[in-house]
Amino acid sequence: MCVSFRSLLPALRAFTAKCPPSQICTSLRTYATEAEPDFEHKPSHYGQPLFQSHPHLLRPHELTPGIPSEEYERRRKDLMDSLPSNSVVVLIAAPVKYMSGSIYKYRQGSDFWYLTGFEEPDSAVVLEKNASSRGYRMTLFSNGKDSAKEKWDGPRTGFDDALNFFKADDALTIKAFPAQLRSMISLYSNVYIDLPQSPRKNARSTKSLLRYLSPPVNPRSEYETVVESLSSSRRKPLAPHIAQLRAFKSVCEQQVMRMAADISGRSHAKTMRFTRPGISESALAAHFEYLCSLSGSQRLAYVPVVASGPNALIIHYTSNNQVVQDGEMILMDAGCEYNGYASDITRTYPANGSFTPPQKELYSAVLSAQKALVGLCTEAEGLSLHDLHRKSCDFLRQELKQIGFTLHTGDLERVLYPHFLSHPIGIDLHESSYSDRGEPLKAGMVITVEPGIYVPPTAQFPKHFHNIGIRIEDEVLVGEKHPVILSVSAPKEIADIEGACQGLLGLEPI
Fold first, then answer.
1. Which of 99, 102, 125 is nearest to 112 (CA)?
2. Cα 486–chain centre separation
3. CA–CA distance, 7 with 184 (Å, rounded to integer)
4. Is residue 140 helix, strand or coil?
């Protein structure tokens, strides 16, 4: 019996709507290449995917893929509840970036997106704390509809839709932002605001604030007085308060991050199979990125490291422009961004599919330390990132001594293992600008665990380990008593790595 996919859609949507938030329902998601065409949704009426225009990407209750509208509301309320009375919050969208006169694929500012889910440039939001049951009033500024510009650049979200979908109390043109901002902030003694895309600990002059709106929303003279008013003692940093909220991942965020890690992990495994002596590092990077894109990733989370042989001794090797030789290992540090959340995974594997005895011995030492460290990522252990790093040094020192290393003062920390063990991860690859490495880990945090050993060709280290660099990195969800490895799809055990390389796991490359 033949049944069309369109006839099954109502039942599928009803089923997913009933799915409890605690369960991962991503298995029912499809992609644009799989869904039956529905030309009623083309072109979209909105400036970003919404369920009404992209039902193959979002469920009815979601504002962005995987994140329901109610969660954005909760984030804003939690932020405003944490601020003192008589406070106002001002956030500006990330600037548009250009390359050779063309626009880069736009990515919204992380804090702005975390609070609004709004993905269009040239926008701003103002949250005014009040005594209502909601706890605040929200005004969203954007370009709104413009048929002439939309013919060139694509659809924009109208003001009525901004009210309806993004739950703003008021939606205004971005051209009115300077005047409205001047009026709003004059009413409050605490003005929380940050400059977009600036070093947060060395913020630029506030006079550059509205220059980030592209194109300039008004002649400079009109907003000059607004900028000057922000220079007073009333201005307070906003980012640290949002960072405290972003440190703890909701169940929905955990599910999206697991999917991002699954996409990256499978791409790692298939790239292991794709690898062979004589192939270029750049081809491996391209293979990984293509696989991630095919699985729904919007972009890579960072420039990948594909370091063959001695190149692995360079921690941030991103040239990826040399040829893989037989007998070498590949250190691949690569992860995708999926529906707003980053993944970060590193695997080290043999180019020809089989570890040599020295490679296997050193890899086993790093793996033993890494697995022990992952087991400590619980709230019950009461450890901080600094504590974990110190333990990583202890574990690695013990492992290296067992395989013949004679370590002197500074050999490990300055030469063999010169980087820190871990960093928080989420919307941003490194969510650590305002994290305290001395604070104990709490359930709901997501961190990386990435010990590594990089052996230079110098006489104080065993010769058969020279020019071998190994790093093993997982994303770990901190639990109360048990950690959860989000990046479990990437092979890590020696037998699994060799199986992936040799095609024994059933994971084939493109």
1. 125
2. 13
3. 51
4. strand
**147-153 contacts at long range (C-beta below 8 A, 24 or more positions apart):** none
Average confidence score pLDDT of the chain? 88
DSSP labels, 323-383: B--TT-EEEEEE-EEETTEE--EEEEEETTSS--HHHHHHHHHHHHHHHHHHTT-BTTTT-
- Give per-residue pLDDT as tens, 246-262: 999 999 999 999 999 99
> What's the Rg (C-alpha) of the chain?
25
The candidate with the shortest Cα–Cα distance to 399, out of 369, 420, 435, is 369
Number of H helices, E strands in the chain: 13, 21
Coil vs helix vs strand at 137: strand
Nearest by Cα to 317 from 333, 301, 336, 300: 333
Tell me whether residue 365 is exposed, middle or buried, using C-beta atoms within 10 angstroms of its C-beta: 0 to 12, 13 to 18, 19 or more: buried
Structure tokens at 195: 């400059």
Tell me the pTM: 0.88
* 133 alpha carbon, distance to own chain's centre: 33
Give the closest residue to 347 by CA, choosing from 501, 149, 144.
501
